[in-house]
From TrEMBL:
Cited Pfam families: SelR (PF01641)
Top-rank EC class of the record's enzyme: oxidoreductase
Catalytic activity entry: L-methionyl-[protein] + [thioredoxin]-disulfide + H2O = L-methionyl-(R)-S-oxide-[protein] + [thioredoxin]-dithiol
InterPro entries: Met_Sox_Rdtase_MsrB, Met_Sox_Rdtase_MsrB_dom, Mss4-like_sf
SUPFAM superfamilies hit by this protein: Mss4-like
Gene: msrB
Name of the molecule in the record: peptide-methionine (R)-S-oxide reductase
Gene3D superfamilies in the cross-refs: Peptide methionine sulfoxide reductase (2.170.150.20)
Length: 180
């Protein structure tokens, strides 16, 4: 319902601002600036689509649970506050559920109260980024650098005393390895 209301309001705003009024120019400038920032962020973070592990859909379906397949391969999202690692704070490492690529350490995890596991930093080189314009939003998708599995999105509203970033991650896309 909210999505439909948003789409209707968005369509109305574009129709009512059809002429190049001052408001329309300002809206376009803001959208262009956001678009450039995301593109710049992706480029500076080595956005590459060449993955070391490449499998067919049939191979992924045989390896992953249906929920893992939906999130990791079809870019799905688990419901908030339902994931295994949302309130999980043991010492250890979080790895990709599809290929076991090390992604996050427990010392970068924090409770963002968003309903998904949140980290303020990924292990260097473990993730790649892609501009995501689905659902009428502009976001930065985070994927495993080794297999291309969808992990979640990164936002610039994380803890300011650290990196300022919030890697909003699906629990089903990661597995936890406890510290030894």
């Amino acid at each position: 319902m909210k999505k439909n209301v948003f789409i209707i309001l968005l369509a109305f705003s574009f129709v009512s601002c059809n002429s190049q009024t001052k408001d329309a120019k300002i809206k376009k400038a803001v959208i262009d600036k956001i678009d450039k920032e995301i593109t710049k962020k992706s480029e500076t973070k080595n956005d590459t689509m060449d993955f070391k592990i490449v499998k067919t859909d049939a191979e992924w379906k045989a390896q992953l649970t249906p929920e893992e397949y939906t999130v990791l391969r079809e870019k799905g999202t688990e419901r908030p506050y339902t994931g295994e690692y949302d309130k999980h704070f043991e010492k250890g490492m979080y790895v990709c559920a599809a290929c076991e690529n090390p992604l996050f350490t427990s010392d970068t995890k924090f409770d963002s109260h968003c309903g998904w596991p949140s980290f303020d930093e990924a292990i260097k080189g473990s993730t790649v980024y892609h501009k995501d314009t689905s659902f009428g939003m502009i976001r930065t998708e985070v994927m495993c650098a080794k297999c291309g599995g969808h992990l979640g999105h990164v936002f610039d509203d994380g803890p300011k005393e650290t990196t300022g970033q919030r890697y909003c991650t699906n629990s089903v896309s990661i597995k936890f390895l406890p510290a030894k």
